[in-house]
What does this fold into?
Amino acid sequence: MVQLVLPLLVFVAVALALFAGRAIAHDVSDVDRALIVGRLGLQPTLYLWLGAKHMVTGYDHLLFLVGVVFYLRRIREIAIFVTLFALGHSITLIGGVLLGLHVNPYLVDAIIGLSVAYKGFDNLGGFKNLFGEAPDEHVAVFVFGLFHGLGLATKLQDLGLRPDGLVGNLVAFNVGVELGQFAALLVIVLLLRLFAWDHNNRYARVIVNGGLVVAGFALMTYQLAQYLSG
It folds into this structure.
């Protein structure tokens, strides 16, 4: 069962990275923009929904989460790493919008793709084999969380936010992101528990994390190509 399911999951992840970028990478959907146009003042429900939607459809964020929690077993460990990631992307999401920090979306999405490849490579022991020790996992997750939040801030600014009710709407969006992340995390942990959480299952470790490396570099290459061609 595992030998059939895991390659399928990796194939889907790589296919998304290679072909879905044009559809849902950094572009803001016309549907989302239409929901905001004409809406004045505080709209917490709308922004809560938009935040959750952006997280659960952000395959790059989800792939990074897979890498982050792949070797974690205890709820406390998962909570610590997810909190660091959430803290990082909350800082740059809210701060980026309030300060008007709008970076090139292709470049920030390329770094996000790199974060996916980085985590897969780290999980495979790549850094330890090459350099004798791996970078601090806590610092890495927090730093990459900053870039993930910057990507979200760029997307949110592309929606054409109004200054009235901005702070409240930002907070609602960020809460939505966290709720979406929590829901996605439950599914990810369940799938890992069913198909990959076996200390003796080297096949699962190599397939999943190798898939993250391939998907991450595919995402990064796609975004850099779009940046250079634009």
